[in-house]
Design goal:
five-stranded parallel β-sheet; alpha/beta; about 950 residues; about 65% helix
């Protein structure tokens, strides 16, 4: 191959092989990114439906994320390497050419040595045949084509384009973080602008690649002329050197690509976070807007319109002149004030309508805040101009941050106490009552002028009425002004909170405000105490003692235990009481109620025992759902399965059934019944089943069995509270026996699910062998320490407060804690685990009881922290002092959950009057509460009562 042939082959290889392959790669690369612009343009067709737009942007970000995940870091290099292989493979490994004349003539760029050598060569040049050059052509071309600077610059340029796509989409999302709905023209404009930028970038990159290929061609030609001469030895292009350059190129590009990918994924993650923030903001904007409209309607309906009507009546009344007209005006005004204003205000104050509107607002906001993702990465100190960009990041608890900001920026500013809603309405009511009195007294006085001044009756009556009406008009106008001012004040607070919430999160997420992030960390960082020298020494000494005492620990504990036991036996020592505190019932209930009232509003809502369970906070007992699914699956396969759900009062039986059955079983197949009242005869059971199952024609359980077995479709029937299907009386078991018969006779046609209180189940299992009728059993009151912890902390985290557990004298004694005293974070973890272990033991796995003890453990709140003091096992003295008859009565309530005075008379063999008297005594002491005509144990006293009954061995006898 001569020089001319090589030049032709090289031009062809670079122009027809290498460059087209690079162009094809670039075209495919930009084609994938142009698809994103088509997605953006498609958002225009979604109109002003914000939900659809946000869904569309989420799809675009998903597609972009897939591109980031799928892009192999070596794609460009791989395409380039394949093309280089195709270029170099046809070339000969070595060629011998005669040196050109330029190799004998000194050039300006030559070094002194090369210039002298060329001069000597020129003088010695006699036979041209002796001046040939040996060129390792294949390695030479490959070496120069692996120019890392050129390949790196192409890769950088492509990644810069991709970075620009991400930032453009993020900037567009930022423009949407206003209360106004997004303008669809913006999406189209951005799509068109982005498409034009992509076209320009593609053209620029193609041009850049073409220019760089020309430079490579020039470098190769120059190298070919020099190689094999005095200027460059052929060994310069040895194979090892070429492979080393290739490897160096691969490593540099790999490192560069990894850095670019990391940066782009961080920015892509921030863009996804911006979309999530946009969703949160629009939800909050919508809820704030609805609250403003609701308040506007409320003020208009309750305050503004009635006052305007009153103002109009007063203006009209100024034209009245006769005594009869003034008397009629008085009656009309009094009726309007009493019925349209005073009556409505009194009703709203009693029902706390105004406060409820705010509470619903809080609930909606906090519910939306708790839908935020758990953790996110915040970016700060970014330099996007560098190649690759430099970005610092930090992970934060995003959900906690959002909930805290909702609480601080919105909720705390419009709480009922701060805005004094009730006080405002009460003041307004008093002013309206004053107006009513003024109308009554003044217009009555005007009418009385008729009798006092016979000769001047017309003029004086009119004058007195006019002056009274003028005073009333001034008062009403003042009230109108105050109402409008109060309305504006509330609206401004909502708007300011909304704006500050938006500005704070935008500064943190989009602008990467490091100062804001540092302030945030300083404010919400887990509380750390200064580790003084005394604390450090105590911690170190505890660790030393721990090692020194290992050899004697067992023996010492054994000696102490023996001495203590002997002391109790000989009467020198008394057995230590388990209780840490003793109190009477009134004190205990008062303390608990006071604790509830002192809680922040959001905490009272989260730990409201009477509210319907929220699925987000629900924690089910281990394997409960799987047991139900297993039983239901077997029944579907024609195995006659039945299921019983057993648990203490307040352990979540109803919640478990509602959530699990709703998820597993279709509505048209499920029938749910609840035994609200205690029944004990077959007729009562037939009536309940007839109403619930729609078979009112049945007159007996046998007829119910026949009707159910004749159904064309199989059903699932859930009966809750079967502890109300008997009375602990000699003749009180007919219903539970008939129900068991019904279940056993229809279990092929019906999947029966029942719930029962734990102590009733235990009692009925001994009396009628209840468990024999159920193939599967699950419990809801056997939560372990981890599950109890989740029950509490799932709710607590939604409040936005940070927990701080306090230590007591008993906790500080063990060396296991003292060793951690100089590390506040580990000490808090230790105290938290210790607390929840004790709480689980005290609550005996009952979630509701655990929440009560949790509330009682709260010492105080501040703006950031919730301080938890150690658990107190309070012994209620009055319960232990009750006589056996009262204790057996309480045992009956534990057994049945809810019973009436008539039921109690049958159970305890008392007259109805004696039964009523017993209930009144227990209710007055706070042990019982009434609901819908029946009575049950006060939930705040449930654990104390059960503990005493177990200690007396009464609960095991029932």
């Amino acid at each position: 191959m001569n020089r001319q042939t090589f030049q032709k082959e090289l031009n062809s290889a670079l122009g027809d092989t290498l460059l087209p392959k690079l162009d094809a790669y670039v075209e495919e690369w930009f084609g994938d990114r142009r698809q994103l612009t088509r997605y953006l343009s498609a958002l225009e067709r979604k109109g002003n439906d914000q939900a659809k737009i946000e869904e569309g942007v989420a799809s675009i970000l998903g597609a972009l994320g897939k591109l980031l995940d799928d892009q192999a870091t070596e794609q460009l290099l791989e395409v380039y390497q394949l093309a280089v292989g195709e270029v170099t493979e046809p070339l000969p490994s070595h060629v011998h050419w005669q040196q050109n004349d330029d190799r004998f003539i000194s050039q300006d760029e030559d070094s002194l040595f090369v210039a002298i050598a060329k001069g000597v060569k020129g003088i010695a040049r006699s036979n041209p045949e002796n001046w040939q050059q040996k060129i390792p052509l294949q390695q030479l071309v490959a070496y120069h084509l692996y120019n890392v600077d050129f390949i790196s610059s192409w890769h950088q340029q492509l990644q810069r384009v991709q970075l620009e796509i991400i930032t453009e989409i993020e900037e567009l999302l930022v423009t949407q973080t206003t209360e106004e709905k997004g303008n669809t023209e913006d999406w189209t404009t951005v799509a068109d602008t982005l498409k034009k930028k992509l076209d320009d970038h593609e053209q620029a990159i193609r041009q850049r690649m073409g220019d760089d290929i020309d430079k490579l061609k020039s470098q190769i030609n120059q190298a070919v002329e020099k190689t094999g001469t005095l200027e460059r030895r052929p060994a310069y292009y040895r194979e090892a050197r070429t492979l080393s350059r290739r490897k160096e190129t691969e490593q540099k590009l790999q490192s560069q690509a990894e850095k670019w990918t990391e940066s782009q994924q961080l920015l892509h993650g921030r863009t996804e976070l911006m979309l999530e923030l946009l969703n949160i903001l629009h939800a909050i904007f919508d809820r704030c807007s609805r609250l403003r409209n609701d308040l506007k309607s409320y003020f208009s309906e309750v305050v503004t319109d009635p006052l305007n009507d009153l103002h109009g009546l007063l203006q009209q009344g100024k034209k009245e002149t006769s005594v009869r007209q003034i008397h009629q005006l008085k009656e009309q005004l009094m009726q309007h004030v009493d019925e349209q204003i005073i009556g409505r205000l009194k009703k709203d104050i009693e029902q706390q309508v105004f406060t409820q509107k705010a509470e619903h607002f809080y609930d909606d906001l906090l519910m939306r805040g708790n839908q935020a993702s758990q953790e996110q990465t915040m970016l700060h100190d970014m330099d996007l101009e560098k190649n690759p960009p430099e970005i610092d990041s930090r992970k934060i608890d995003w959900r906690l941050l959002v909930v805290r900001q909702i609480r601080e920026q919105l909720v705390s500013k419009i709480q009922p106490l701060q805005q004094q809603y009730v006080s405002f309405l009460a003041e307004l009511l008093e002013d309206i009552r004053d107006i009513s009195n003024v109308i009554d007294v003044n217009l009555e006085s005007a009418v009385a002028v008729e009798d006092d001044h016979q000769g001047e009756k017309g003029e004086d009556t009119k004058e007195v009425a006019r002056e009274a009406l003028e005073r009333l008009l001034n008062t009403v106008e003042e009230l109108q002004s105050r109402s409008e001012e109060k309305h504006r004040e509330i609206i401004d607070v909502i708007q300011e909170g909304q704006e500050s919430f938006t500005e704070f999160l935008l500064a943190l997420v989009h602008e990467g405000d490091l100062n804001e992030l540092q302030l945030l960390n300083a404010k919400y960082k887990a509380k750390e105490t200064t580790s003084g020298w005394q604390t450090i020494i105590r911690s170190r000494m505890a660790q030393v003692q721990d090692h020194l005492a290992l050899w004697s620990r067992f023996g010492w504990k054994k000696i102490k235990s023996t001495v203590h036991t002997l002391g109790i036996f000989l009467g020198f020592l008394q057995k230590e009481m388990e209780e840490t505190k003793r109190a009477d019932i009134a004190t205990y209930l008062s303390e608990t109620d006071q604790k509830m009232q002192e809680l922040p509003y959001i905490y009272r809502r989260l730990f409201n025992f009477d509210a319907k369970a929220d699925q987000r906070f629900y924690v089910q007992a281990l394997d409960s759902a799987s047991i139900l699914k297993k039983a239901y699956g077997q029944w579907q396969q024609s195995f006659p399965s039945t299921l019983a759900v057993v648990g203490e009062k307040g352990s979540g039986k109803s919640t478990f059934l509602n959530l699990t059955l709703e998820a597993e079983i279709s509505d048209n197949q499920l029938i749910q019944l609840t035994m609200h009242d205690t029944i004990w005869t077959e007729d009562q059971l037939v009536e309940v089943l007839g109403d619930g199952l729609g078979i009112k024609s049945a007159q007996s359980i046998q007829e119910v069995v026949e009707i159910i077995n004749g159904w064309s479709n199989r059903k699932v029937i859930c009966i809750e509270c079967i502890q109300n299907c008997f009375i602990r009386n000699l003749n009180g078991y007919e219903v539970i026996e008939k129900l068991c018969y019904l279940i056993s006779e229809t279990k092929n046609q019906v999947f029966w699910v029942v719930s029962c209180s734990r102590y009733s189940w235990r009692f009925l299992d001994k009396t009628v062998q209840l468990s024999d009728y159920f193939s599967h059993l699950t419990t809801t009151d056997r939560l372990d320490a981890d599950q109890i912890k989740r029950v509490i902390l799932n709710r607590h985290r939604s409040s936005g407060y940070t927990l701080h557990f306090e230590v007591d004298d008993d906790t500080i004694k063990p060396r296991s804690y003292r060793k951690l005293m100089d590390d506040e974070e580990k000490a808090q973890e230790y105290l938290q685990e210790n607390y929840f272990e004790k709480l689980t033991e005290l609550a005996e796995g009952n979630a509701s009881v655990a929440m009560i003890f949790w509330i009682r453990s709260i010492r105080e709140f501040d703006d950031t922290y919730c301080y938890i003091q150690p658990l107190e096992v309070t012994s209620v003295e009055m319960i232990k002092d009750l006589d056996p008859q009262v204790l057996f009565t309480l045992a009956a309530f534990v057994l049945h959950d809810t019973i009436s005075d008539e039921d109690l008379s049958m159970i305890m063999h008392l007259t109805k009057e004696e039964s009523r008297l017993m209930i009144n005594r227990l209710q007055s002491r706070g042990l019982l509460v009434e609901k819908d005509g029946a009575y049950g144990i006060n939930h705040l006293m449930y654990r104390q009562i059960v503990r005493v009954l177990k200690e007396r061995n009464i609960i095991h006898l029932v």
